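Support reply, case 0932

Customer input (verbatim):
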Amino acid sequence: MVLFNVDTQMWERSTSVSAPPLKTLSSALSVSTAALGAADVYRMLTPGTTLTISTVDMTEGRVFVVRAIEASVGSPVTIVGEGGETIDGAASAELTVPYDSVMLQVTGGVLESIAADEVDAADDGAVITFGATAVNTTTTDRFLLQSNLNQTAQTVLREFDVPRPGTLQNLFGGHRVGNGNGSDIVYTVQVNAAPAFTGPVATLLTVTIASTSTAQAGDVVNSVVVAKGDRVSMRVGKAVAIGGSPSDIFFSMGLTA
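Our regenerated output:
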């Protein structure tokens, strides 16, 4: 079956019968996987947290995904093995950047990091998703978040790192709840829009939706080729203020090989 991978932000083929359990930790500063119960994906909301991979969970081939929602160099999210198992040969691993993540696999009694493109992705490609609870009402550009409907679209650029080369296409999405004065909102896929990049910014992948509309919209005509490591974002643009923001905004696009 095809399941959503929190680390890669993509839908991928899995041989398991159910989606990997997710645990979100908001306050604990030291916790073990055994205490949390069965899970494969851990979202760490508090900087300075230490996650201990329990010995009983060190099943050969098992994969753990750890994501630091909040972290810094001085207050990282730290991962250790309960029995002193090494992580890529070191005693621990640290996530020091917000939204940084690592995928660890139990191999020969130790933990080794694996890249997203080492995961057996679906033969027909994968899906990248963006979303937000609202997009604000002013003409200031905003950016949707990767698969996150729990925040308003941000004024700071939010990007997804492409784990493999491919083609972005078949952009679909919309508003679950319409609002405002009906003026248009333009949702545009961007590639390498961060200041550190000199490549293209806006692509031809774009959808225009009235703020009051709840109908699905899409772009099945245009596509854009991306390389491994390119950064993809979704810009929210408005020519005029919309009076009230639609809510539960959601978009998805395919990444084909």
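We compared this against your earlier run and they match. Two observations from our side: Residues 13-21, 117-124 have pLDDT under 50 and may be disordered. The two ends are 19 Å apart (CA to CA). Please reopen the case if you see a mismatch on your end.
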